[in-house]
Structures are given as structure tokens and as C-alpha cells.
Amino acid sequence: EKLGFNLMVFCNIVLKDQSKKTISEFENIIKQLPEILEVFAISGRYSYLLKILVSDIGEYNDFILNKLANIEQITDFHSSVVFAEIKSETACQVVEQFSRLNNTVQ
Length: 106
What we know:
It is a single chain. The protein has helices at about 20-30, 55-65, 95-105; strands spanning about 5-15, 35-40, 50-55, 75-80. By secondary structure, it is of the alpha+beta class. Strands 2-3-1-4 form a 4-stranded antiparallel β-sheet. The mean pLDDT is about 90.
């Protein structure tokens, strides 16, 4: 937020099809967009989940109209605006589990 990026959005993407060509083209395009922090290929109703960070709702609207809506591999998308981040961890439990394993071996 201190850098002026105050709006986080998760955006679910539906591709027009699941061909290798469509997937490859989409992934190559999406990797070039600096507003997108993370991209996850997911199962279920949607094909991908994007984590997007922008300054405000106006910038997000511009992103949708000028970038995302112009990607021909996308047939549908659904946006969810983040009101509050409840928990954010970057470390996983592997270190803790390794420590426990190491203590039992000694």
C-alpha cells in the first residue's frame, strides 16, 4: 500500500478451449502483464486464477478494458476484489517438519 498499490483482485479466467496452442498463447501473454503478480492453473469451472495488484478501481477497470478483455483466448472472467487480507504466509511447514524429524533421529 505504501507504494500506491491499494487494490488487490483475484480474477478467475475461462479459456475458449483447452488446446495446447490456446494454453501456451494465453500463458505467454499473461506473463507479460506487470499488474498480474501470480498465475495459477486450476481445476473446476475456471481455467486460471490471477492475483492482480493495481492502485485503485479505475486502474483495474483500465486493465480489464485495455488488456484482459483483448486477450482472444479468454471467453469469460470473474473478478473478486479483496477487502482485507486476513493471513499471509510465505514460509511453509517443511522447515518445522524437518526440525521435528531431525530431533527424533538424534
